[in-house]
Design goal:
The protein has 496 residues and is α/β, with parallel strands linked by helices. The protein has a domain of 323 residues: TIM Barrel, CATH 3.20.20. 52% of the residues lie in helices and 10% in strands. Helix 3 packs antiparallel against helix 19, helix 4 runs antiparallel to helix 17 and helix 9 packs across helix 11. Keywords: FAD, Flavoprotein, Oxidoreductase, Proline metabolism. Its cofactor is FAD.
Length: 496
């Protein structure tokens, strides 16, 4: 019997359009805005049909066929991506860029404009989805054509007063509106940073009070609502050295406002039928963030599909214990809980703070231990969602972790296109893993920050500083991209 040849676009459309719909079955109607020219993927190169071959990996994950892997990435984007990944893998160049962005040069008119233009045309355009939600929505539409989804991230970080928090809330609410107007299921999550809608000082105070209550259960917090466990027995509590004073009346008023902001955003996501994912931060304020996340999940997560997702950073030694405690409490309360699993993004800060206070770092001692923790937490969550409610987002750039999770999902019989399971990578990074997982039939999202260059600057600086090792180790992506560029060049030469 002859093997049937099927164009990749047809295969991709069949897979994507039969996806299990997330959350409720009713989706908002499409009200796609008028969009400006694309940012990430411009025109798809001329595609050739591919011969379907069985994969040796039962999960279907295949990185050998580079033509199929990058079939939706135009040559111009491959060239730019290869150049950007190479440049950001050179540590002295990253150090120079960070120095420039933090220097007094950024205070000098004229020079500042030149620097921002340079950043916009390189680092920003590669790692960010656009300067506003509408442009980011366009980038998501292009990802959808390539079989991927988007996590929209309004690129603000910390707020220090209620005025800033209110302004940031408007940005998050607008993000939900834009997401609702895009094709159904093209936006997998809207991301929120609690540090952007609750003053940082209040988060620090709340975290101190929560830690002290963990030390002394008789310590009463009158403002505290129902929550899941925030700490485990092994969670370090060194940030809080003495009994903190109760919240002042002004702080309680600020807390009430923060609760109202998060409630409004959660309600907006419920109405739009789009999950809200709460990002994690450093351990100084993470207890308060977990408190906000869990109390909101109790109020808004119903049925089998969570609307509010939390984040567990698996480079922390207590990650697995806290994950198990939170999921056990959620099960007991019949609350479906979703988690994003990441390795972590504050390693340098955590080690410095712990050392300054005379304590061991809360981060795993070796990268092997971090990998093991991420993989163990992934396996745990996959088993939970295979047998009950909830959801998991596996945010990883590690190819081996992707392979292990895909194989585990296959072993458990979790449907590949399943709204309970989502893989995720940063926009502009790990394209091979993203497309490989997508080609294997799994739902994959790109974490897509957007906003004016100056607004997103703290995000870019943090990514550059914390991901320098990962960027330097991006050789896997660069190698596969070079192979595909070489294949395309040979095809062009053969035409003449």
């Amino acid at each position: 019997m002859a093997t049937r040849v099927i164009p990749p676009r047809i295969l991709r459309n069949l897979r994507y359009n039969t996806a299990t719909k997330p959350l409720n079955s009713v989706h908002p109607s499409s009200l796609s805005p008028t969009l400006s020219p694309p940012i990430f993927l411009d025109q798809k190169p001329p595609s050739s049909t591919v011969l379907l071959r069985p994969s040796s990996d039962p999960s279907g994950l295949n990185f050998h066929d580079v033509e199929k892997l990058f079939s939706y990435v135009p040559t111009s984007t491959l060239l730019r991506s290869t150049a950007m990944l190479h440049a950001t893998g050179i540590e002295p160049m990253v150090d120079l860029g960070m120095w420039v962005m933090r220097s007094k040069l950024m205070e000098m008119e004229g020079i500042k404009d030149v620097i921002l233009a340079g950043i916009r045309g390189t680092f920003y355009n590669h790692f960010c989805a656009g300067e506003d939600a509408i442009t980011a929505g366009q980038s998501i539409g292009l990802l959808k054509d390539a079989g991927l989804r988007g996590m929209l991230v309004y690129g603000v970080e910390d707020a220090h007063d209620n005025h800033g928090c209110d302004k940031n809330l408007k940005g998050f609410l607008h993000t939900v509106d834009v997401s609702k107007s895009l094709p159904p299921s093209s936006v997998s999550f809207v991301i929120v940073k609690i540090t952007a809608i609750c003053p940082m000082k209040l988060l620090e105070r709340m975290s101190d009070l929560l830690r002290w209550q963990q030390k002394d259960p008789s310590f009463i917090l009158p403002w505290k609502q129902d929550s899941f466990p925030i700490f485990s027995e092994s969670t370090p509590l060194y940030h809080t050295r003495k009994r903190p004073e109760p919240l002042t009346m002004e702080e309680e008023s600020d807390l009430k406002l923060a609760n109202q902001r998060l409630f409004e955003l959660c309600q907006k996501c419920v109405e739009a039928n789009i999950p809200l994912l709460v990002d994690a931060e450093h351990t100084e304020v993470q207890p308060a963030i977990d408190y906000f996340t869990y109390s909101s999940a109790i109020m808004h997560n119903k049925g089998e599909n969570p609307i509010v997702f939390g984040t567990i950073q698996t480079y922390l030694k207590d990650a697995m214990e806290r994950l198990k405690l939170a999921t056990k409490a959620a099960d007991k309360m019949n609350i479906p809980m979703g988690f994003k699993l990441v390795r972590g993004a504050y390693m340098s800060m955590e080690r410095k703070v712990a050392s300054s206070l005379g304590y061991a770092s809360p981060i795993h001692k070796t990268i092997h231990d971090t990998h093991k923790c991420f993989n163990d937490c992934s396996s745990f969550m996959l088993e939970k969602i295979a047998n009950g409610p909830g959801g998991v987002v596996l945010a990883t750039h590690n190819v081996e972790s992707g392979k292990l999770a895909a194989a585990k999902a296959h072993e458990l019989g979790i449907g590949k296109v399943n709204h309970k399971l989502e893989f995720a990578q940063l926009y502009g990074m790990s394209e091979a893993l993203s497309f490989g997982l997508s080609n294997a039939g799994f739902q994959v999202s790109k974490y897509m920050p957007f906003g004016p260059v100056e607004t997103v600057m703290p995000y870019l600086l943090r990514r550059a500083e914390e991901n320098r090792g990962m960027l330097a180790a991006s050789g896997f992506d660069r190698q596969l991209m070079r192979e595909e560029l070489g294949r395309r060049m040979k095809r062009i030469v053969a035409m003449f």
